[in-house]
Amino acid sequence: MMRRGSSLPPPPPSGAERHDLETLKALLPYLWRYRWRVGFALACLLSAKFANVGVPLVFKKLIDDLSLTGEQALMMVPASLLVAYGVLRFSTSLFTELREAVFARVTQEAVRRISLEVFRHLHSLSLRFHLERQTGGLTRDIERGTRSIGSLISYTLYSIAPTLVEIALVVGILLKKYEPSFALITIATLTLYITFTITVTNWRTALRREANELDSAANARAIDSLINYETVKYFNNEDFEAQRYDKHLRTWIAAQIRNQYSLSALNLGQALIIACGVTAMMWRAVQGVQGGSMTIGDIVLVNAFLIQLYIPLNFLGVMYREIRQALTDIERMFGLLKTNREVEDAPGASELPKGSLGVRFENVDFSYEPNRQILHGVNISVPAGKTVAIVGHSGSGKSTLARLLYRFYDVTGGRLVVGNTDVRELRQHSLRSAIGIVPQDTVLFNDTIRYNIEYGRPGASTEEVENAARAAQLHDFIARLPDGYETRVGERGLKLSGGEKQRVAIARALLKNPPILIFDEASSALDSKTEKAIQAQLEAAAKGRTAIVIAHRLSTVMNADEILVLDNGRVVERGQHTTLLAANGQYASMWALQQQEAAKDETAA
């Protein structure tokens, strides 16, 4: 049955509702697949930091030896120390590059797997989700989320973790070699710096999130307008669309400016803390040299340590902000994975059997919204190999039947049976593999005509694609094009006319060669001449298959085995063409009206 759940991704969490730990736990399995690489990268990280901390120690020894040894030792000792100095310097770079080279595959594979999982999940969500979503905002969420995975891993493994290791090593050396005040000043500076950074950054998170939301909204507005390019042109609303887009941009700019002001305040505060810490450390070092408890080499060592710590600390605020933002963006993307599938395969769902399949709607009720029922107790039986036509006025529920048969939604009452099995007990992939459809509104991929036809059965041969095009009365048109089947159709197929797009859809459905065919207003965009030419092909394609023909033009369904008239979600008449005309009911009235319109068109022509 239909699952009642949110069909849209959850809003970004507020500061009190963040789930950073859960986000990290969700990300961990993607990294754990490459745990040996992660372990090796961490070993390289430690080796690089030991080498980096060793450089100032060797440099101190070199300074002290140069100050104290005799002339002969002056010629020998510095040479060995210089070699050690060079080896340690090179080792730092060597282990750093090894770490990045080994870990690169981990990051990229994690991004690939998560992106693929989100992509598959979005395709598994219900039609309701995709009707309500905003494409621009959704794609921006996915883009930011996948990019943030790399950022999170990069900042934590390449920046935060090395910095923490180096801080621990430096504090340990200061405690062992010098009086406690040096380590205490270092710890106090770091504590104050980190506390200030976290406090201010948490305040800034709301500003950054607001800027991102406004950015997504502006992007969604722009994409929505560009997708509806023709409609904008029809109503001469270029300025109107530009003003709406500019309104979004102005609010986004205002948020960005507030964000920048807060960033400047944060940077100034961090710089002040670092400056005070560095001054206090150097003051104690100078006192030690003056008092004779420290050598020139010691002050060089302390200064080198300070420089090594200052450089990563200078970017700690940036790293922390980026990690927080990355976690927010990843959480938003993982939120898409948590979006409930409205329609899911039942445990132990079965496959459809091969061969001919009948279709039955048994007392089916359906509503998109609880207060707006579309179908009321509909009973339709389409025997295997037969053709049943469904006609009626717009809004009567005809296309809803096709959506239910594809199981884009589940019925809210009664049941829908295909091949003697309730569709809720079938695997969706198996069900949809058995159905081919020519939809009323054909939207094509921005690719070639060949690709769009071959989409009905990827991997079909060139001969099969061309035979399907011939059956859809499309081959001769394609042959006249300069690029033939390699002609690109443009965004949503806008380079083709409505009739040409519909013939591509017909060829695609014929190439799929399924046991069940649905023609949902399949000839609505065709002119009368083309419609007559293709009608025989459609009837030939439906022969031997279970076919449901949803039509407005009654002339296209005259030869159906049974015709049903749908009105306000109810079947009000059923029978063959001649029987329904003799009944002089709603079908007969529709037929008479369409015949009058056809006669007027012929007279005008």
3D structure, described in words:
The chain is an alpha/beta fold and 605 residues long. It has a domain at 15-338: Up-down Bundle (ABC transporter transmembrane region fold), CATH 1.20.1560.10. Helix content is 65%, strand content 10%. It is built from 19 helices and ten strands. The chain has helices at 20-32, 35-68, 71-124, 127-132, 135-177, 180-227, 229-234, 238-291, 296-314, 316-338, 398-405, 428-433, 449-454, 462-471, 475-479, 498-512, 528-542, 577-583, 586-604; strands at residues 359-369, 372-382, 387-391, 413-418, 421-422, 435-438, 516-520, 546-551, 562-567, 570-575. The strands form two sheets. The chain has a six-stranded mixed beta sheet with strand order 6-7-8-3-9-10, sandwiched between helices. The protein has a four-stranded antiparallel beta sheet with strand order 2-1-4-5, with helices on one face. A hairpin with a 2-residue loop joins strand 9 and strand 10 (570-575). Helix 1 (20-32) crosses helix 10 (316-338), helix 5 (135-177) runs antiparallel to helix 9 and helix 18 crosses helix 19 (586-604). The longest helix is centred in the N-terminal third of the chain and has 54 residues, at 71-124. The protein is elongated, with a radius of gyration of 35 Å. The model is unreliable at 1-17 (pLDDT under 50).
